Amino acid sequence: MNAPATPARRSSVITGIGVVAPNGTGAGAFWKQTQEGVSVLDLVSREGCENLPLRVAGEVRDFDPVAFIEERFLVQTDRFTHYAMAAADLALDDARLGRADYEGAPFKVGVVTAAGSGGGEFGQRELQRLWGEGSRYVGPYQSIAWFYAASTGQISIRGGFKGPCAVVASDEAGGLDALMHAGRSIRRGTDAVVVGAAEAPLAPYSVVCQLGYADLSLCDEPTRAYRPFTADACGFVPAEGGAMLVVEEETAARERGARIRAELAGHAATFTGAARWVESRAGLARAIEGALREADCAPEEIDVVFADAMGVPAADRAEALAIADALGPHGRRVPVTAPKTGTGRAYCGAPVLDTSAAVLAMEHGLIPPTPNVFEVCHDLDVVTGRARPAELRTALVLSRGLMGSNAALVLRRPTDTPV
């Protein structure tokens, strides 16, 4: 008697990319600035932040939410949700996934977002009204707009998505964990997931909360404020924005004629405790090894590493050692890049932006440089100065959070797509 056939694994692929970042809105604008190594870090200009110790950040300045979002949604949402909703629209357009594709099966499409701070600007405004004018002046949306899950809820309601929806409330590595969550939903039967993260941490209340982070850069020179892997490293620079992706089950995507941009091949995560950078070496290495194992990928197959690049000497050293531990001798030869040094770290949005950049890098055969970084003091081949042409089939994206999360994601370029 023949044993029953093992069901084929449902593979998850990226078919759409939507970006709202300090260096551009839309994947095209984002990639142009990223590949050219343009740094947009500048002095903080947000109202109410002028006299706070944080001097440099990555602000999203050329973004008009009215161009993307209906008024009825705008009034009930915070800036971080505006970014997420706009990025979701851009990703859906890029994937050419419209209502006609899922209207008859809305339960086949889900939404997952990650968030580390929530709607601080909206919450601050409503609390000021409460204490300054009284409870009658507090709007009804105060109960939901600040909440971590607001972006997931609004994207699903607005789009009519009724499949599995979730929010990963975490520190920075949560952006990669959200992608893993989407992949697992697809393995369990969902056809598509709108997934990603966007943050808006530059309101006064939010900035004051961040001032408790010892690793925050308080440097007032934009070109020197965020220089990971160098002797000048003095902390990280925060940023707004993020990215949303359309992730689909591969067979379903191909059947509808979608462009397969990359495969989510493997992911793993660990936890080593808040600001325990020495311990993060082992935790990050373990995450890399787990992601490689899930992807059935040998260390020497990794063509580029998009680094976490915390900008803290102990953290940078731990990351360099973790790459060497997990990838062996190849870890000292593989090109490493950190485009976020030109935009800042958008918390949960940062690794999703790195994932977007990695997909675009594989498509263009070009490793973007690490802005503002020149003399590297670690045993890493960090790409600096200008973009480096390379044949890229497999990329590794790394992320760590201030609270101790570590995550690694392996992306693979489709074999039927020419470089």
From TrEMBL:
Keyword terms: Acyltransferase, Transferase
Q: Which PROSITE patterns match?
A: KS3_2
Looking at the UniProt entry, the stretches that span the membrane are none
Q: Which Gene3D superfamilies match?
A: 3.40.47.10
Looking at the record, the residues that make up the Ketosynthase family 3 (KS3) domain are 9-413
| InterPro entries referenced in this protein's UniProt entry, alphabetically | Beta-ketoacyl_synthase, Ketoacyl_synth_C, Ketoacyl_synth_N, PKS_Beta-ketoAc_synthase_dom, Thiolase-like
Kindly indicate whether the keyword DNA-binding belongs to this entry.
Answer: no
- The domain of life for this entry's organism is Bacteria
Any matching Pfam family: ketoacyl-synt
PANTHER family tied to this protein: POLYKETIDE BETA-KETOACYL SYNTHASE 2-RELATED, POLYKETIDE SYNTHASE-RELATED
Say which family it is in.
Answer: Belongs to the thiolase-like superfamily. Beta-ketoacyl-ACP synthases family.
Q: What is this protein called?
A: Ketosynthase chain-length factor
**Species for this entry:** Streptomyces glycanivorans
